[in-house]
Prior knowledge:
- This protein is of the alpha+beta class and 301 residues long.
- The protein has a domain at 111-281: F-actin capping protein, beta subunit (Aspartate Aminotransferase, domain 1), CATH 3.90.1150.
- The protein is built from seven helices and ten strands.
Amino acid sequence: xxxxxxxxxxxxxxxxxxxxxxxxxxxxxxxxxxxxxxxxxxxxxxxxxxxxxxxxxxxxxxxxxxxxxxxxxxxxxxxxxxxxxxxxxxxxxxxxxxxxxxxxxxxxxxxxxxxxxxxxxxxxxxxxxxxxxxxxxxxxxxxxxxxxxxxxxxxxxxxxxxxxxxxxxxxxxxxxxxxxxxxxxxxxxxxxxxxxxxxxxxxxxxxxxxxxxxxxxxxxxxxxxxxxxxxxxxxxxxxxxxxxxxxxxxxxxxxxxxxxxxxxxxxxxxxxxxxxxxxxxxxxxxxxxxxxxxxxxxxxx
Length: 301
């Protein structure tokens, strides 16, 4: 028996499935609707197949659909890091620990890197979220990537906005490949300083959860959940932005965990409760008969 919990929704700010599904006659809409109805356990395979069917939409679909994060190893630091579209250049991915692309590029200097001060903030953020990961996940991998979103380079004042992504991944190790699970968190962040000492933080968060069990029931839960958050917070300098982002991510992940617990495990428990009974069928029949007799007797009064 297979039990599948599906929660659909991509996380990239633009474009997203709300845009792709705006017209039912549009090929984009049909592709999005098809994707949402396929088994979420096979995200990569489903996405590749749809891109083969609609090659003209491949770039837009790939940029709007979140998939489980892949890992790579930084040769310079020896640490693992997470890969996504935001640290990719061709087939290479930038390490947040060394600021170097792997596999190495011939034109590394021409590849996209954050400006000098933003790179300092990125390093600080990676160290901070590495502590967060260890406290909350007790293992796993975390990576943070920042990039300049304005013409001017980010400085220590914090008055120049930028964007970034916080990635977290935890995999359950198991001797049996069919028995385990994984949690992937993707938080895409946009920081917009306003007038005075306040800034607007826009966060689009996606959690991808996969749990499988290799026992005779063959049960697995797989799906994703997306939420958007916008909040105005005070800041003193550029480092304050990292602190504010950390607080937001902590709060968002707590809320998403509660939602996932309700949707994944709560609904699955209800379904199993409806289709499985601990009492013998004879007992239920006797109970129904007694109930009917009681109603008939009450009607005769």
